[in-house]
Write a structure and sequence with these properties.
It contains five helices and seven strands, in the order βαβαβαβαβαββ. It is α/β, with parallel strands linked by helices and 175 residues long. It has a single domain, classed as 3-Layer(aba) Sandwich (Rossmann fold).
């Protein structure tokens, strides 16, 4: 019954065009590089995500694009307006609606919602990782959680943080 949940914050966005609405801000060059590094890291994850929930904001979709190139074409992808600006509670409600046949999911969203969700779900694992998340969940960070319940039962302290990867820790040239 164990499930894998990957929680990712979108990559660094550009502030170059002050006329653009927040929803439409694209990735900065730094964000594009970070998204590429994280895509290569995620492509080696076990298990790979079989379902992706991604905010429809431009920067979130652009964060997902390099990941999409490395995942199987059979991955189910949902680009959802409701994930933009969603609170941790709203993200939790969305995850609870996942079918139990889904064994691994990737959520790409925004702070503070993704950070709040991660803190709420985490129960055990490496306490230093959780302390690091509480201190801040930077752009393009990716947390790996193991869930021992059905998606509908997801709630406070029902997952363990098994990994936390920052793009700055990864090489631009994956092996």
């Amino acid at each position: 019954m164990k499930k894998s949940l990957y929680i990712m914050r979108h990559a660094k966005s550009s502030w170059n065009d002050s006329n653009l609405p927040d929803f439409e801000r694209p990735l900065a060059r730094r964000g594009e590089k970070a998204a590429g590094r994280m895509a290569h890291w995620l492509a080696r994850a076990v298990p790979l995500p079989e379902l992706v929930l991604c905010s429809s904001a431009t920067r979130a979709v652009q964060t997902y694009q390099p990941i999409a190139k490395l995942l199987s074409k059979s991955v189910e992808v949902h680009i959802e307006d409701e994930l933009y600006g969603a609170s941790g509670t709203e993200l939790l409600m969305r995850l609870r609606a996942l079918p139990d046949e889904v064994k691994s999911a990737l959520l790409i969203g925004h702070n503070p919602g993704v950070q709040d969700l991660l803190i709420e779900l985490a129960s055990d694992g490496d306490p230093a990782r959780l302390d690091e998340v509480r201190a801040g969940f930077p752009t393009c960070a990716l947390a790996t959680l193991r869930v021992a319940s059905r998606w509908a039962e997801l709630g406070p302290a029902t997952a363990s943080v098994e990994g936390l990867v920052m793009p700055s820790a990864l090489s631009d040239h994956p092996r």
